[in-house]
Every structure is written in C-alpha cells, then in structure tokens.
C-alpha cells in the first residue's frame, strides 16, 4: 500500500500560494463543509488572505486539526484576510438541487459575498462552481494552499457552530457529538424519534431501507 504524502508545513502552503499569486494576483481560496452528514445545511467559505500580513502559525487542512485548534484559529484567519465570506445552502436546497448542486451554490454565494473581487479563485476538489472570474480546482487543496486551508477552517467552524445550536433545539439526536454525520448513535436516534426538520430526507433513504431489510 502506498504511503500517504507527508503533511505540508504552513510555510509550504503559503509558498504554494505565493507562486500562484505571482506578481500580485488577488487570490481567493474556497472550501466547503458538510457534504456528507445526514443533517444540516452545507457550508462554504471564500478567503482572500492579505499577503502583507505574517503567516498564521499552524494554518493547515482543517480536517487534520482538533476542534479546539480550529476554533482558536477562526478569529485569526478572519483578521488575516483582505476579505472573507461564509455562506450556505439549506436542507431544502440540498433536496431540490442534490448535494453537489447545493455545494456549488454555497460556493457561489461565498465568492459573491466578498467585499473585494479576486482575480483568481482556487476551489478545493475537482468541480468548479459557475463564477464570473477565472477559477481553478485544486485536488486536496486544503492541504496544498494556505488560502483554501483558511477557507476550510471558516467553513468547518461555522457549520459546527450551527450544529451545536441544533443540538440545543433537538437534544435527542446528539448533534453536538457527531455534527450530523451518520454514526451508529445518530442512526439509532433517527429510527427511534423520526427525523427533525434539519435532517436531509434524501440522505435517510438508505438508512430506512437497511432498517426495513433487517426487519423483514
């Protein structure tokens, strides 16, 4: 089995951006959070880091950080930006468009919400939303680009905070623990209590089908 590529340092992520920026291109990183969970909106963030500011110590792929570390960097990322915007697409929009379409919509909203228009948008993954400026995909971008890593932190922390609020509203599901993902405890709670308005109906079909098959 091939070994996973070593984690890049914060300095390497900034260096990658600097090379992309060239002689002063205004660079924007975009990432999403919440494509896989059974509940909640899908989030996206767009970030234009200020190249004149010192690098953010510890900045990296948000998935490789503890929740505490992401929270500690959230305000730091915001203050290091020329501009940023966090946006989302609702459960209703996920159901109407499918999760890919809703993710692209959240990304479009995040970029459109920037107070400064970027000259190049770098999007994590292999799909581009329709944008009015040049854009490129970057596979594993949150572990490659400082701008995308910064966006990943804003998107992930923003989404997690809404799940804590949902946990207070619907404590029987345990949203604060699993953040809406399909853990055993979450699936059991859905089967016991039924879904709440924050659940994505299309994401629950497999769960109900499996439960039906097991009980027939």
Please give a handful of descriptors for the protein shown:
216 residues, alpha/beta, five-stranded mixed beta sheet, 45% helix
Summarize the structure.
The chain is α/β, with parallel strands linked by helices.
Describe what this molecule looks like in 3D:
There is one protein chain. The protein is of the alpha/beta class and 216 residues long. 45% of the residues lie in helices and 15% in strands. It has helices at 10-21, 67-79, 91-97, 99-112, 146-169, 175-178, 184-193, 201-214; strands spanning 27-33, 42-49, 81-89, 120-124, 135-138. The chain has a 5-stranded mixed beta sheet, with helices on both faces. Helix 2 (67-79) crosses helix 5 (146-169) and helix 3 (91-97) packs across helix 4 (99-112). The termini are far apart. 41% of the residues are buried. The model has no long low-confidence stretch (mean pLDDT 94).
């Amino acid at each position: 089995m091939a070994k996973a590529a070593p984690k890049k340092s914060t300095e390497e992520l900034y260096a990658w951006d600097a090379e992309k920026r060239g002689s002063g291109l205004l660079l924007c990183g975009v990432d999403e959070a919440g494509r896989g969970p059974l509940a909640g909106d899908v989030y996206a963030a767009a970030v234009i880091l200020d190249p004149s500011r010192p690098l953010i110590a510890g900045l990296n792929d948000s998935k490789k950080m503890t929740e505490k570390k992401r929270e500690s960097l959230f305000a730091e990322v915001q203050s290091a930006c020329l501009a940023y915007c966090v946006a989302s697409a609702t459960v209703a929009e996920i159901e109407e468009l499918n999760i890919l379409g809703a993710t692209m919509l959240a990304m479009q909203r995040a970029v459109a919400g920037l107070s400064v228009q970027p000259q190049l948008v770098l999007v994590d993954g292999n799909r581009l939303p329709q944008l009015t400026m040049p854009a490129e995909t970057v596979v594993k971008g949150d572990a490659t680009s400082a701008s995308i890593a910064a966006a990943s932190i804003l998107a992930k922390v923003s989404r997690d905070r809404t799940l804590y609020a949902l946990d207070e509203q619907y404590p029987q599901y345990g949203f604060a623990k699993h953040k809406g993902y399909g853990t055993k405890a979450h699936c059991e709670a859905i089967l016991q209590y039924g879904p709440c308005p924050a659940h994505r109906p299309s994401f629950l079909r497999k769960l109900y089908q499996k439960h039906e098959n097991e009980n027939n």
